[in-house]
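Show me any protein, keeping tokens residue-aligned.
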Amino acid sequence: MNFSFEKKDFKKLFIWYSISFAIVAFFVYGSYYFSGHSLIWQIDGSQQHLPLLINYRKALIEFLHHPFSGITTWSWKYGLGADTFQIYSYYTVGDIFAYLTLLFPASKIIFAYQLMIILRLYFAGLAFTYFANHFDLKKSVIIPGAMVYIFNAYLLYANVAQPFFTTAFIIFPLIILGLEKVLQEKSAWMLTFAFTWMLINNFYFAFILGIGAMIYLVIRVFFTYRKTLNYFLIFRKLAGSTILSLLLSSVLLIPELLAVQNSTRAGSTFANGLKFYPLYYYLALPSQLINGGNRDFYFWSALGFSSIAFFGVIYVLAKYRKYPVMTAIFILSGIMLLFPAFGAAFNGLMSPSNRWTLMLCLPVSLSVCILLEHVKKLSPKMLKYITITTAIYISIVGINYYFQNSEKLFIPIIFLFVFLGLIFWLRFIDYKHTYRWANILVLLNVILNAIYFETPYNGGFANEMLPAGAYDKLQNQRYAGLDSDIDNDNTFKVSTISNNYYLGEDFKMYNTLNEKLHGISSYYSLQNKYIGQFALNMQNVQYETNVPLQQFDDRSVILNFLGVKYLFTQLNQENDTKIPYGYHLDKTTRLIYDVNQNSSKNQQTRRYATKNNFPLLYWQDTAITPKNYDKLSVSQKERLLSKAVFTSSNNAKGLKKAKISNTDVIDIPYVLVSSRGNVIDTNNLEKLDANETYKLVLQLDKLKEKNNLPQNVELHVEINDIKYTPFSFKKQIALEEKNQTDDLTNGLLAANEKLAYYKYFRYHVLKGSPDMSYALNISSNLGTETIAQPRQSKTSFFKIVNSGTMNMGYFKNLPETLRLTPSKMGTYSFKLKVYAEPLNTSYDKEVAKIQKHALQNLKFNKHGLEGKITTNHTGILTSSIPYSTGWTATVDGKKAPVIRTNQAFVGLKLPQGTHKVKLVYNIPGLKLGMITSIIGLILLAISLIYTKFKKK
């Protein structure tokens, strides 16, 4: 197919598209509205997109009112503190829709956020209609293509869950049009505009769309232009557009790239270690094409088009000589979907996430237009081909149904037959309004797909949306009013107890969303890599790439070190009695009794407070160097935080050397015993029975004999060098069948070997067995802690886990046993140590000493802070401020080197005396980016002037 850039009337197409969009959108978004839900996803929507939009809008208004006061470069409200550009760049800075919120009053921003979701989708469809209008297509066939383009499983999810994903659907058609203009030796300005928007909008999607544009360019040139192309001219235009767009976007792009490089994203395992996808992925992949109600994306192979898309694709493939470019794209895309390496390559060499399939929506939707354009001219041979391929396709999808039994396939399959009938009807019946029924049926198909995808009555996506009006409650009543008497202060943090604070099903307490109080947890795409390293080195079992700290497993010393002054908990929720040392009950809400007098269902929110929170910045004169630090256990490293600062040997010169005694952290001997009565070696734990559990029997008598039995301790279980080897697929099924036979409670009539085999065979296929995932759960009377290796299908939440330190809680007297439960059958090997960390008045004195040496008269500003301190001798100003190369410092007005302390935090070496300390944060790469963009603007002006005079 050839592009035509002749002017065409777009008005009628625009009107019919708008009407069609309004009809479908009524059902798509009405599914949320009429079930009492908002368009705010309870995970990313409520934790990232909306709160960041609100804060970014405030920052914009403040800048517009006071343009010469500069922008805020460092914010104390995002976790421990963060580079504002690193936070905003992924979500709002380059998003043109974010700036439309300036048109709304502050009281209507939640409404504006949801309106922008609908507008994005509308403009995505509009971009397709504009794109398709450049072909020799009837306007009546473009509308169904537009509906297929925007109302598919990918966007039914992403448009609401990750709103800015939709913008890529607007930009990509413009990129292709820009490339075609250049290839036809026309103006390159459209391509320059599209490239610049792509780079400014979001660096992640710029990477995906950039690769996609290059692949398209190679295919298009090879099949269409290779013999006629003026290669020198085209190369010059392409290079000029690319360079100019890179220069213009550098003000955002350079800081973004540096932010990615210095984030927890760097160094991820390529393709999560996968060479091939699990079997269930390949079984489900064929049905993914038309399964619009399906939310099991499986590595983001999210297609889910209207069923007519199947016929569009097979028609183009059958006419490969006429449509070689689209045929090549479909074949290449099919191959890319088969191997994780391609998904990882498009995903920044990280997890195998097939988000690149957003670009596949364009040719698939165009193929629908092509099919409908030629449906009246289909030959008997083509009709036979379509019928046979449909039968084969349904047979293949039926195999997947054997495993998944998904009722979500019913609507797509029904419409597959409906559209097959429509094709025959349109081919043989001479009807005045030929395409009206095609439009109606496509609308009906996408509407029913959307309803099935979203409505809450069958577990749809609406269940994951916040109820209408809930976001205001989250902001104002997150802590049930217990924060009302706490003053706004950047010098301390708040937190909750791990897995305790329940606000609704699947809602996570990742971010505080509170203007007054700042929590240690933060959930953003780009996180400070040093904070990530600190969490990993301290073996935080809650670590995630996007959420490196969370509640840090409620470990007392680390919470104190991070400045946590208040903890909020909820009665009768998990871990509600697992209160860290030094936190006392400070305030509660009114106790609400269960109407049926079941005390386990009584409700109350509680606030705990401590006096042991470390200051934000404080002086220490004792240090430990890497040589000695590396010899310590994790619990010893943690305990050392109140005694000394960890820094390089060079920075430690002139400071006292730290010591940690055997009484600071006590090694507790134990024996591991199976529920079957045998003693287990942790170097070879073979779990053959899913119901088998294990006890850690603490040998407290040995400690009593040595008068070394501690009291008032925090109990840690450190597990290192974890290796898990799953049994083979065949052995797992055999063991499951044997265990069912051995279970005497199943009864005589339960013995059905064929059913048991099918049940376990199906289960392990759908779970991707054998796989590397596992969980080690350890329980005490205070709760259960877990070290978990995620499945490789967790995409960006995948990580390699071979160690972890679990905080079992604070005990006055040590428990006699702990329960260990491996989650899966297989062979485990690990090193396990149990440590008791006494926390008492001795620890309180150490903290009091730290608080005595805090930086005084703290003043915070948009770029950092300043304060005064008096030191008796040389020492290091230590902090819980995340380290970054953007920090600069002055001491008494003179530049001072910023050093990294305790693995991840800002520090300064101070001589004896009274000092005025000032810390200033400059966004890395921003100055270079501004200079580069100014050069780009100058070149743009010169190019425009040259073009204007050339035309004259």
